[in-house]
Specification:
Layout lengths: L10 E7 L4 E6 L11 E4 L2 E4 L11 H18 L5 H12 L3 E2 L3 E3 L2 E7 L7 E6 L6 E4 L10 E8 L5 E8 L4 E8 L4 E2 L4 E5 L4 E3 L3 E6 L16 E6 L8 E5 L7 E6 L5 E7 L6 E6 L7 E5 L6 E7 L2 E6 L7 E6 L9 E4 L5 E7 L2 E8 L2 E7 L5 E4 L7 E3 L9 E8 L2 E9 L4 E6 L10 E9 L5 E9 L10 E4 L14 H8 L3 E5 L9 H5 L7 H16 L8 E6 L1 H12 L6 E5 L18 H4 L6 H10 L13 E7 L8 H13 L6 E6 L10 H19 L9
Parallel strand pairs: 37-38, 37-39, 39-40, 40-41, 41-42
Antiparallel strand pairs: 1-2, 3-4, 5-7, 6-7, 7-8, 8-9, 10-11, 11-12, 12-13, 12-14, 15-16, 16-17, 17-18, 19-20, 20-21, 21-22, 23-24, 24-25, 25-26, 27-28, 28-29, 29-30, 31-32, 32-33, 33-34, 35-36, 36-38
Helix pairs in contact: 2-3, 2-10, 5-6
Length: about 700
């Protein structure tokens, strides 16, 4: 067997497209991936795991394999004739000024901006809305290659101190730095090894944060189990930080602490998975006060919106799958004393506060509708939005008279509006200047039937005048899990696809949160196949209605969406021409043994739960369902070497299985980003490179020539 570190780049050329008379690349061989004799036994069933060695992210052999795979992948991508033209057009479109909504802290308004192609967004501030603007914090200076990003910020109530977290190489492990906002000086030593954490100040004395004990072995892949909530007092060593909640006495996988706006209470959320949580409260007027439970168990979700003295306002899905806002007295806060303030409706609710009012953001068939209420639950008005799409950011301090919200849709670049809280009027505050005419494109929402007859919504966007002849290159993108909702939004990258005659389709699969907790549950555990069936039905609808055909369809998704793509392409390999599983959860028998993977068990179940659950997971696990002699679509698996959310071994093993067993001529590549993580904080230049590779790979393997109007 040829050793992977001796692999030479081998790309052969052969003629394949009779219409275009173009030459197309063929990969004669892939890096040989050594097999080992690892076998696991689940409930009496032996399951081989021949590529187990690829789970060791610290080994020299894994590093050599990554290098060999990237040599093949980038050799292929860099030889696609129009790849550079795609990158150039993406860069042209991307190069416009971008801006976030301003937020007031102390005497200053802070906002994030990007002048066009900056790798990281820059934090600006000005004293009052009419003050002179200055750069406050520039993450582009954090590292030479811009792979260290700003991951979160938290100001003290008076705005005099800022605690901000940074991520290096895209890792979920963070460092926290405290700054005096007046002179921008660093206040104390860096807080290290922080993970899955917010930062919440207690006055100006210190703050609460969460983390795990640093794992033994690989920091990127070792399992993290017991989250801990700490209190850090300023100007004291991190080693002296006080454990507030969690650890061995109260083991929970995810713990967060946040201080009430009046700084009277600490609220603690604790959970064992990504759904359902306990809720606790501690009166901070006396540090020795006990931590009191509000809601126990993990069957429902609870989060404190605000308090009005002793009256707590809590958003919950307890007895309300679409969520409701309730009140309870902090002196007697158990769930049986919940009283509705904003009752559940047929639409999913998300609440925020600003200027002494409550803003109820509803999803109505995945589109935003916002209603303004007073603190007693009386409706004041419905907020008039700029159009049909997605609005967010209805938050501000109680004393603020205005708030700033964003609005976007598939053909509406994200803009910021200033909203007068008392008058209920909106004015455009900022909009981007983009080389884009929304009148050239259209979006429709359709409802199609899945395998079991369930109606599934899907947005479809394309250039006006597109002929539905069944030959249009189409990207079908979805997620379908963890109560996540895919909303209408504008993408400058997607514009390159659309302006070249492409169609973009985004279905809202079960497993997501678009229609509440029942919709979510319908795509979990023993019902996970519903998600794949919904996605397959979306593809079949697009083909039946003439949008595209199997030779011009690409499916894509990331993380849980990467699992979606992996499962779909192994179940129905003939349905699509191209597949893009990104940072996917591909080994469903072992996902829970890495980093925080065990926390995903609410959605997936685990192979250790029962024989039935094991067999169900094995039945769709992408790594375990690649079959010898099957022709799979042209596939580009993507991952990153510093992904400590969904470890890259998932993608490594899936790619190895495909390369060994795939019987067709279509390429099976794995693109491994170096010094990058699960996606957050990725520099602009890396993002553009990745999209250029994706679109060029898709068009090339569909036999489509982009930029025809220029020819």
């Amino acid at each position: 067997m040829k050793k992977i570190w001796a692999f030479p780049l081998a790309l052969a050329i052969f003629a394949c497209n009779s219409e275009e008379k173009k030459e197309k690349m063929e990969i004669n061989s892939y890096p040989e991936t050594v097999k080992v004799d690892t076998v696991d036994t689940y409930f009496g069933t032996e399951v081989p795991d021949p590529y187990r060695w690829l789970e060791d992210d610290r080994s020299e052999q894994t590093a050599e394999w990554v290098e060999a795979q990237n040599e093949v992948t980038f050799g292929y991508l860099n030889n696609i004739p129009f790849r550079d033209k795609i990158e150039k057009r993406l860069t042209e479109l991307w190069n416009y000024a971008k801006e976030g909504s301003p937020r007031k802290h102390g005497d200053y308004y802070y906002t994030y901006k990007n002048d066009g192609l900056q790798n990281q967004w820059v934090m600006y501030r000005k004293k009052g809305l009419d003050g002179e603007e200055e750069v406050f914090l520039d993450p582009n200076t954090f590292s030479d290659d811009a792979t260290t990003s700003l991951a979160g910020t938290s100001f003290t109530k008076d705005g005099s101190l800022l605690a901000y977290s940074i991520s290096e190489g895209g890792s979920d492990w963070r460092k926290v730095i405290v700054m005096d906002t007046e002179d921008k000086s660093i206040v104390e030593d860096t807080i290290r090894n922080v993970k899955f954490s917010g930062i919440s100040w207690k006055g100006n004395e210190g703050f609460f944060y969460s983390s795990y004990d640093k794992p033994e072995g690989s920091e990127l892949s070792a399992k993290t189990q017991e989250h801990k909530l700490f209190y850090h007092k300023l100007n004291t060593p991190q080693s002296e930080d006080e454990l507030i909640f969690g650890g061995s006495e109260t083991p929970r996988r995810y713990i967060g602490g946040y201080v009430s706006d009046d700084e009277r209470f600490l609220f603690i959320s604790a959970s064992v998975s990504t759904s359902g949580n306990e809720l606790y409260v501690k009166d901070l007027s006396d540090w020795n006060n006990p931590i009191v439970p509000i809601a126990t168990g993990f069957d429902s979700e609870h989060g404190v919106l605000d308090n009005d003295g002793d009256r707590l306002l809590i958003e919950t899905n307890l007895d309300a799958p679409n969520r409701r806002l309730v009140e309870v007295d902090v002196n007697n806060p158990s769930t049986e004393n919940y009283k509705d303030v904003i009752p559940e409706t047929e639409n999913v609710l998300n609440v925020s506060t600003a200027g002494g009012y409550i803003f109820a953001n509803y999803m109505v068939d995945v589109k935003t509708e916002v209603h303004q209420f007073d603190y007693e639950g009386n409706k004041v008005r419905q907020v008039e939005l700029p159009g049909i799409g997605t609005a967010g950011g209805f938050g501000a301090e109680k004393e603020d008279e205005k708030l700033y919200y964003s609005f976007t849709s598939f053909t509406y670049p994200s803009a910021i509006f200033e909203y007068d809280i008392e008058k209920g009027t909106s004015e455009l505050y900022w909009k981007p200047e983009i080389d884009f005419n929304p009148e050239d494109y259209e979006t429709e929402q359709v409802f199609y039937e899945s395998k079991d007859g369930t109606k599934i919504p899907m947005f479809i966007t394309y250039k006006k005048g597109t002929e539905l002849n069944g030959k249009n290159p189409t990207e079908l993108y979805a997620y379908g899990g963890f109560n996540v909702s895919l909303r209408p939004s504008f993408s400058i990258a997607r514009l390159v696809w659309l302006e070249n005659g492409g169609i973009y389709a985004q279905p809202n699969l079960r497993g997501g949160g678009e229609y509440g907790e029942e919709w979510h549950k319908a795509g979990t555990k023993m019902q996970k196949q519903n998600v794949f069936d919904d996605f397959i039905a979306a593809a079949e609808y697009l083909i039946a209605e003439g949008y595209t055909d199997s030779d011009h369809l690409a499916i894509s998704g990331g993380s849980n969406g990467g699992l979606l793509v992996g499962a779909t392409m192994t179940q129905r390999p003939e349905l699509m021409k191209v597949a893009f599983p990104a940072v996917g959860v591909m080994d469903m028998l072992r996902y829970h043994t890495f980093t925080a993977g065990a926390g995903w068990a609410y959605d997936y179940g685990t192979s250790e739960d029962s024989k039935e659950m094991f067999e169900y997971l094995k039945g769709y696990s992408p790594v375990h369902n690649v079959k010898e002699g099957v022709k799979y679509p042209a596939t580009m698996v993507t991952t990153a070497d510093h992904d400590d959310r969904v470890v890259p071994a998932h993608s490594f093993k899936f790619a190895a299985e495909l390369q060994e067993k795939h019987a067709g001529d279509s390429p099976v590549l794995i693109r491994i980003e170096t010094n990058a993580g699960h996606g957050a904080g990725k520099p602009t230049d890396k993002i553009i490179d990745g999209i250029a590779d994706k679109y060029s790979f898709a068009w090339y393997n569909m036999g489509v020539q982009p930029f025809r109007e220029e020819m």
